[in-house]
Amino acid sequence: xxxxxxxxxxxxxxxxxxxxxxxxxxxxxxxxxxxxxxxxxxxxxxxxxxxxxxxxxxxxxxxxxxxxxxxxxxxxxxxxxxxxxxxxxxxxxxxxxxxxxxxxxxxxxxxxxxxxxxxxxxxxxxxxxxxxxxxxxxxxxxxxxxxxxxxxxxxxxxxxxxxxxxxxxxxxxxxxxxxxxxxxxxxxxxxxxxxxxxxxxxxxxxxxxxxxxxxxxxxxxxxxxxxxxxxxxxxxxxxxxxxxxxxxxxxxxxxxxxxxxxxxxxxxxxxxxxxxxxxxxxxxxxxxxxxxxxxxxxxxxxxxxxxxxxxxxxxxxxxxxxxxxxxxx
Amino acid sequence: xxxxxxxxxxxxxxxxxxxxxxxxxxxxxxxxxxxxxxxxxxxxxxxxxxxxxxxxxxxxxxxxxxxxxxxxxxxxxxxxxxxxxxxxxxxxxxxxxxxxxxxxxxxxxxxxxxxxxxxxxxxxxxxxxxxxxxxxxxxxxxxxxxxxxxxxxxxxxxxxxxxxxxxxxxxxxxxxxxxxxxxxxxxxxxxxxxxxxxxxxxxxxxxxxxxxxxxxxxxxxxxxxxxxxxxxxxxxxxxxxxxxxxxxxxxxxxxxxxxxxxxxxxxxxxxxxxxxxxxxxxxxxxxxxxxxxxxxxxxxxxxxxxxxxxxxxxxxxxxxxxxxxxxxxxxxxxxxxxxxxxxxxxxxxxxxxxxxxxxxxxx
Amino acid sequence: xxxxxxxxxxxxxxxxxxxxxxxxxxxxxxxxxxxxxxxxxxxxxxxxxxxxxxxxxxxxxxxxxxxxxxxxxxxxxxxxxxxxxxxxxxxxxxxxxxxxxxxxxxxxxxxxxxxxxxxxxxxxxxxxxxxxxxxxxxxxxxxxxxxxxxxxxxxxxxxxxxxxxxxxxxxxxxxxxxxxxxxxxxxxxxxxxxxxxxxxxxxxxxxxxxxxxxxxxxxxxxxxxxxxxxxxxxxxxxxxxxxxxxxxxxxxxxxxxxxxxxxxxxxxxxxxxxxxxxxxxxxxxxxxxxxxxxxxxxxxxxxxxxxxxxxxxxxxxxxxxxxxxxxxxxxxxxxxxx
Lengths: 329, 363, 338
Known about the structure:
The complex is a heterotrimer. Chain A is mainly alpha-helical. Chain A has one domain (86-328): MetI-like (MetI-like fold, Orthogonal Bundle). Chain A is built from 13 helices and 2 strands, in the order αααααααββαααααα. Chain B has helices spanning 12-21, 84-92, 118-124, 136-139, 146-157, 162-175, 181-184, 194-206, 224-241, 252-258, 276-281, 286-293, 333-337, 353-362; strands at 42-53, 56-68, 73-77, 99-108, 111-112, 129-132, 212-216, 244-249, 261-266, 269-275, 343-345, 348-350. In chain B, strand 1 and strand 2 form a beta hairpin. Chain A binds chain C through residues 15, 18-19, 26, 30-31, 136-137, 139-145, 148-149, 151-152, 156, 163, 212, 216, 252, 255-256, 259-260, 262-263, 266, 278, 281-282, 284, 286, 289, 293, 296-297, 300, 304, and chain C through 168, 171-173, 175-176, 179-180, 182-184, 186-188, 266, 270, 273-274, 277-280, 293, 297, 300-301, 303, 305, 308-309, 312, 315-316, 319-320, 323-324, 327, 336-337.
C-alpha cells in the first residue's frame, strides 16, 4: 500500500517538475519580461539594472530553482496586463471556476452513470436508442455551440435565464459563492449544463461500452448460471467491474472540466480563471499563462492521485501483494 | 425431495409456484407418482437451436434427443462446433443471442423448462441445475472474495442466515479439497491457482445441491497433471450430492474414465448414443470409430494413431443426407441422399444407414 | 441499396465467366476480371453489408461527401464571393434569410454585418475548417504513427522517453494544449497573425495536441507485429530497420489508425472551431466556421440570429456526420461488437 502511494507520488512529482519546466521556459524565454514591465522611455542602463535585479542574468538552472521556490509559495510575479500580483488575481477568480466545475462534474456523473448503465442493460430498448442518439449529438456539438444555443433559447427567446455573469455572490472569508442566492443559482444553470454535457455524454458512452464488455464475460455468465437475481448480477457483479475503468476515465474527464471551463467562461462571461487565461493569451500576459498551466497541472495531479486511491479501494488485485498468493493445484 | 422427481405432469401452475419459492422440500403426498419419469430426470426431445444470420437461419443443433438418468455421469462428445456446448447452454437457459431454441422441448423431472418465464427459470439455475464452465480463471468475479460468491449463491436459493451460509461455504470448500478453507474464504480469486479455482467453481456449482450439473469442458483449461484430480473430484462430489452430470468434452479419454453413458455429436446431430463401455470398446458409427481410433492406448501398441480425414463442415454448408458422408470411409448412395435417424441396435442408438439395414433385417 | 446488390450479382456472373469460360483471355481482360472479383468480394464483405444495412451511415457518408464537395468547389458554386471587398455593399448588411419578411432573394440565408452573403461565407468557411481539420489530422497521424513505431520497435530509452511524454500530455485535454501551443507560437512568431501563418500555427497546435492516441495504438500493435515471423525473417536477412518499420510493420498496423483518424477528424474540426471562436484561430479576414460563429454571436441579442445559427448548424451537421462515420467504422472493424 505504502509503496504504491509513494510510487504514485513520485510520478506526480515528475509530472509537476516537467510542467514547471515548460512554464518556466515560457516565463523566461517567450517575450522579454523586462520589456513588458517598463515603458518605452526607460533607458538601456535602467533595463539592465532591472534585469540584474530580477536575476535574469543568472544561469538557467539557478533561475529555474528560484522559479520553483517562488511557485511553491504561490508567487508568480506581476501580471503584465493588470500590473498586479498573479497570485491575488487567481485567488479572486478561483471560487467561480471551482464552483462551476464542481456543479458540472456532479451533473455529468449523476446523470451520465445511470444513463450508461441503463443503455448497457437494455441495449435494444427505445429509450436506449434515444439516449445514444442524444449522446452522439452531445459529442458532436462543440461546447461553445451548446452555450450559444442555450443562450439563444433561454435568454434571448424565452428570457428565463441570465446570459452572462455569476449573479449575486456572497463573500465568505476568502471565498465567494453564488450557490446561496437565487440569482446566483439561476446564473449557474446554463454554464454548468454547457460545461457538463460533453462529459456527461462521454461518461454515459463509456459506462455503456464497459457494461456491454463486462456482461459478455464468463463470470457474469457463471453468476447467471448460479441463479443469482438479475439485480445481483447487473448491479452487484457487472456494475462493480465496470467501475474500475470508469473511475480512471471519469477522473481524467473531471480534470479536463477545469480546462474546458475556459470555453464556457468565455461564452457566459463567467468571471473565473479560464476567462482570465484566455484574456492573458490575447494580451500575451505570460505570468498568468504559466501560473495557470501550473495550477491546472496541480489540479490534475491531485485528481489523478485520488483516482488511484479509489482504484485501489475497488480492485482487490491491486490491494493484495501478489507474492502472498499461495494457491496450488 | 425425491418424491418431487415423479410429480411430472401434475398441475403445472402449482409446480411453478413451488419452483418460484425455491422450496422443494415439501411435496404434497397426494400428487400422483409418474413411474415413467423415474428413469430420466432430464429429457431432451428434438431440440433444435438456430442462429439467424444474414444468409438465413443456421441450424447449430439439429433434432437432438437424449435423456439423463438420476445420479449418472452422461458424456456429450464431439469436435468443437458440434453443438455440444450450445446444448448445455440451452438446458440451463443461457443461450447467447442470436442463438435461440427453434424447436423441441427440454423437461426436468417431467416439467418443461425450455419455455419457463425468466424468473422461474432463474430459480432453477443453481438450485436444480448447476453449471461449470471451461475456464476457471475467468469464471469467478475478480472483485469479490470467494466466500462472498459462495454465500451469495447459498442465500439466493435457501433460507438460512448469513452465518449458516458462511459455515456451509467453509464446509463445502473443505469438501472440494481446499486446505485452510476458513481463512481462504476471505481471499480473492486471483490468490488461487487454476486448479484451486476450478475446485471453487465446483463448490459454487454444487452449493445449492442441484440434481444436475452441466460441466462444459471442465478440465480443458487446466494442466494435464491437474485434470485427473479435478475429474475425480467432480465425480466424487456429484456422487455425494446425488447429482447427475452432463460432461461436455471433446476428449474421449475423459469420457471413458468417468461417464456411464455417452452421446456422440457431429455437426449438431447425434450420431451414436449408448453405454460408455459399448461405445469405447465397439463403436459402431464410423465417426465414433474414428474418434476412438484417435486415442493413444497404453495397452495396445499401435504404429500410428488413426485420424479422420477432412474437417467438420461449416454450418453454412452441411451436406445433404448424412452430415458425415463426405468423410466417411464406408459411405454409399443412400448416405448422400437421405438423412439417417437414430435406431436402436443392441444397447445403443445409432444414426447410420450401415446399421439401418441390419436393424431392418433383425426386426 | 438494391443497385449495389444488382451490380454485385452482375459482377459475380462476369467473374464466373472470367474464371471458367475464358481462362486464356488477354492480360488486360483478365485484369478486368480480377478487379471485378475484388469488387465482388467488397460488395460481399461484412463491412459492406453493415454499411448498406445502416441507413444512418449511408446518410452520414453522403452528407460528409456533400460538405467536402461543396467546400472544394466553393469558388464556383457560392452565389457571392464574400472576400471580394469590391462587391460588398454595406447597404446589404443585416438582411434576414430570404423567407423572412425583410428577406432578399439574392441572399438565401441572409447577410452579416458587412453585407456578406451568409451562405457563401459558410461555403468558404467550411473550406477553411475542413482544410485545417484534415491537415491537423495528417500532421498528428504522421507524428504519432512514426513515434509509435519507433517506440514499439526500438524499445529501450526511446520508448521510455516517448511514452513518458505521451503520458504527461494525455493527462491534459487536447484543447488546452492546443491553446497553449498556439499562444506561445503567436508570441514567438512576430507575423503569426498574417493569414497563411495563422493557419500553419493552428494546424501545428491542433496536430501536436492529438498525436498521443496514434502513438499508443501503433506502439502496442508494433510490439505484437515485431515478434511475428515475417519481421524476424526480415531482420535475419539483414533488411535495414527503417525499411522493416516502413515496408513491413507500417501496413500491418494501419487498420486501427484509420478509425482513430476518422474520429480525430471530428475532434480536430471542433478544436479548430473552438480556437477560432475564442479568437485565437484563423483571422476574421479568412473566416472558418468557428470565426463566423464568433462574429455572429455579437448579433444574437439584437435578434439577428441567422448570422450565427446557420454556420453553427453547418458545423454541427459536419461534425455529426463525421462522428457517425467514425462510430460505424469502429463498430464494423471491431468483431467483438457484432
